[in-house]
């Protein structure tokens, strides 16, 4: 009986040990499965910078919809241009969808070309930047005309986001032409409100603007001639990504490179986004109605 008791005790110990080992293996397997799930989930997470400019809001929401349909969860992080570039350099952002070259964002290209990947591909090839005034100001047609009408404008150029490449070029323009004007920074919505109020009251105003932009379909505005070409000629819009993005997301990198829009397409997209209750709702409607175009990008 004593030997039987010893054998029974030994069997019980072995059984308990086997049970604990099985539990441990299950726990390890569960942990590995969870780790794999988390890795897979993280590979579907993207962070894209959004700048509060009409066309930027439009295209970032458009890509949020397109990538969402492909199973990606896209976080749009609102930043100004300077903060966007620093975040890309640190790897805190995956992409910025709006880099104007060769002039407007040349300073950012120069500073970050070794630490941020700027695309060679462009998604818009016919952009224009310059100072604009309402068309009813018939006596003002060139940047050189501004000093002669300084009092008309109270010596002020109404600007938008400080740190934007176009704002820095406008400061350079003031220096190049020896303008007796001050550039007043604000935000794009504030600047557009000022332009709208001025036009409705047929008052003078001068501001830096760019095309494509919905405001040209709302108000009669004209670009001032820039004889010294400070703003440059035709601008092209690129995108930029953090280093390593192409390796992590080769498929999306190819889609971004395939992305092309013309004046009509970007104008319509901006209009949909501007007039919707929420930007994403407008982008969803535009994407749904332009699936053939999008299929050319994400083929």
Automatic annotation (TrEMBL):
Signal peptide positions on this chain: 1-24
The ABC-type glycine betaine transport system substrate-binding domain, residue ranges: 44-289
Principal subcellular localisation of the protein: membrane
Localization of this protein: Cell membrane
Domain of life, source organism: Bacteria
Keyword set, alphabetical order: Cell membrane, Membrane, Signal, Transport
GO cellular component: ATP-binding cassette (ABC) transporter complex
GO BP, sorted A to Z: choline transport; glycine betaine transport
One GO MF term: carnitine transmembrane transporter activity
Classification via SUPFAM superfamilies: Periplasmic binding protein-like II
Protein's name in the database: Glycine/betaine ABC transporter
Organism: Oceanobacillus picturae
């Amino acid at each position: 009986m004593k030997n039987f008791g010893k054998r029974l005790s030994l069997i019980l110990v072995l059984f308990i040990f086997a049970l604990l080992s099985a539990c441990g293996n299950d726990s390890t397997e569960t942990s590995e499965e969870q780790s794999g799930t988390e890795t897979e989930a993280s590979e579907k997470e993207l962070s894209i910078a959004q700048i509060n400019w009409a066309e930027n809001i439009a295209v970032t929401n458009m890509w949020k919809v397109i990538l969402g349909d492909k199973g990606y969860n896209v976080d749009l992080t609102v930043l100004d241009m300077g903060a966007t570039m620093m975040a890309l350099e640190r790897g805190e952002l995956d992409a910025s969808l709006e880099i104007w070259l060769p002039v407007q964002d040349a300073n950012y290209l120069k500073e970050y070309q070794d630490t941020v990947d700027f695309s060679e591909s462009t998604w818009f090839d016919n952009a224009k930047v310059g100072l604009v005034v309402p068309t009813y100001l018939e006596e003002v047609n060139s940047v050189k005309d501004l000093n002669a009408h300084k009092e008309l404008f109270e010596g002020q150029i109404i600007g938008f986001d400080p740190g934007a490449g176009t704002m820095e070029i406008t400061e350079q323009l003031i220096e190049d032409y020896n303008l007796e004007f001050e550039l007043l920074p604000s935000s794009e919505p504030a600047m557009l409100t000022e332009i709208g109020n001025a036009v409705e009251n047929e008052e003078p105003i001068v501001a830096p603007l760019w095309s494509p932009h919905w405001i040209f379909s709302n108000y009669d505005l004209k670009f001032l001639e820039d004889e010294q070409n400070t703003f440059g000629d035709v601008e092209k819009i690129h995108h930029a990504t953090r280093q390593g993005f192409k390796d992590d997301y080769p498929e999306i990198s190819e889609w971004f490179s395939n992305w092309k829009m013309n004046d009509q397409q970007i104008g319509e997209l901006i209009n949909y986004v501007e007039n919707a209750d929420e930007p994403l709702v407008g982008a969803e409607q535009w994407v749904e109605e332009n699936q053939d175009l999008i299929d050319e990008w994400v083929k």
